[in-house]
Design a protein that fits this description.
Length: 184
């Protein structure tokens, strides 16, 4: 007499279990497909050039080779994957120039994240260079926790962590080293 490990009842139960597992996997893949949404921009522009005005006065000019607008996502933003070149104007039309290799402008907090060879210069010869910098558009305030180099007609300084007004009139740094010539 041969002994069968599985009785007919056990074999049926095992078969149903295997079928259920495969059908669950199939259903799981279908659910994944349904929850997957294409993350694509709602707008796109090449050779983008925008002038921002307020009360008939130009406040800034933004130029970028590529702009992707994600206005229809939950947290809307605009991406500049090929970098930006921005000119900011103060009340006296003095200019501040901002460049970076990449930028993202978040609409809800009104914040711009600048990344890669970020460089800010002004007409007085001041230059700030860093790898990443944030710009609070509402308060017209720049800040970073990254290392930076600040060049001024009086000297050059290096540091980590800095925040300042767009015209460099107010500058706060966390850690700074360098030489400044007070005779200038």
């Amino acid at each position: 007499m041969t002994f069968n490990k599985f009785s007919n009842g056990n074999l049926v139960v095992m078969l149903l279990l295997v079928i259920a597992l495969f059908s669950c996997e199939s259903n799981f893949k279908e659910v994944q497909k349904q929850n997957f949404s294409e993350f694509a921009p709602s707008g796109e522009a090449d050779d983008f050039n925008m002038k921002y005005t307020d009360s008939g006065r130009i406040k800034s000019i933004l130029i970028s080779p590529k702009m992707l607008d994600y206005a229809s996502v939950t947290y809307p933003f605009t991406e500049f994957p090929k970098g930006i070149n921005v000119t900011l104007f103060d009340i006296n039309n003095k200019r501040t120039f901002v460049t970076s290799n990449y930028a993202v402008s978040y609409k809800v907090p009104n914040l711009i994240d600048l990344q890669g060879n970020v460089r800010i210069t002004n007409e007085m010869g001041q230059v700030l260079e860093t790898s990443q910098l944030y710009f609070d558009q509402k308060n017209e305030w720049f800040y970073t926790e990254k290392k930076f180099k600040f060049t001024d007609p009086k000297g050059v300084s290096f540091g980590e962590g800095i925040d300042f007004s767009k015209d460099f009139k107010i500058v706060n740094s966390q850690s700074i080293t360098g030489e400044i010539d007070e005779s200038n």
